[in-house]
Amino acid sequence: MSATSSIPVLSWKECMPDADFVIKIIDDKNIPSRMKIPHRNIGYKVALLLEGKMSGNVDFRKYEVEGPAVLFSSPEQVDHLTGHKNIKMIHIAFSKDYLLNDVRTTLSCWECMFSQIVIPVINNKDFNELKTYASLMQQEFAELRHQKDLVIRNLLNAFLITAARLGTCKTKLAVMNSSQNKILQQFRTLVDDHFLSKTQVAEYADMIYITPGHLNDTIKMVTGKTAKQLIDEKRITEAKRLLFWGELNAKQIAAHLNFEDDAYFNRFFKKHTGQTPLLFQRNSL
């Protein structure tokens, strides 16, 4: 049994295979039924909840929100809508590669912004700006126009920077040179792709063609954490997701995450979380 088989991965590409960006209005009548089962997404999602109420879970956190609000979801997070009433929202989905290259350089707190899940609106001016950008993206998306993709990407960049202003993680404009940004993005992409099989900093440094020391120094300077910490956090987060949402026991998850044995996985998990995998799973029920 595959460790991820019990958590389906959903994609708008099933109905729009060539699209890397989708924007649509969703309400109680047309909300996709697949959003009501625990699932992962292939890309990023941002929803402007204009009105109504929603509740659900993202990874291990429950939320209840009333519009106006902004909701975020990242690739690999497990998303589950459990309730909605009188909702109207603008739903935006885009692939990892869709953004212009400099947006994640501009937002030093990119991961923090998308990990917030829900941001209730307390600044109507910024929310109105978001609605304006969303409306312009809808117009471009709906019509065949010259260089529409470039226009949408620029609007999306402006949209995300404005959304960051609403957040609580104190997102700031980053001062990051192009070399640092390139290393960070390469490292994050490689960790996303290989964290199941590669767990050592040296393995990633080899793939980026730099020394482990240079990789660690760069990652620490930009994120405040070591490269090894980010690798371990990725493994722990995936373990938590499978324990919380999956139908697997700790031994099966240890095998999926390529730990030598379940005893080592238990020690690793407890070191990073303060509790055993079994206790975490029991507390999640």
TrEMBL record:
Q: Which Pfam families match?
A: HTH_18
Which controlled-vocabulary keywords does the entry list?
DNA-binding, Transcription, Transcription regulation
Per the database record, which ranges form the HTH araC/xylS-type domain? 185-283
Q: Kindly give the SMART domains that the UniProt entry links to this protein.
A: HTH_ARAC
Q: What molecular functions are annotated in GO for this chain?
A: DNA-binding transcription factor activity; sequence-specific DNA binding
Protein name (database record): AraC-type DNA-binding protein
Upper classification of the source organism reads: Bacteria, Pseudomonadati, Bacteroidota, Chitinophagia, Chitinophagales
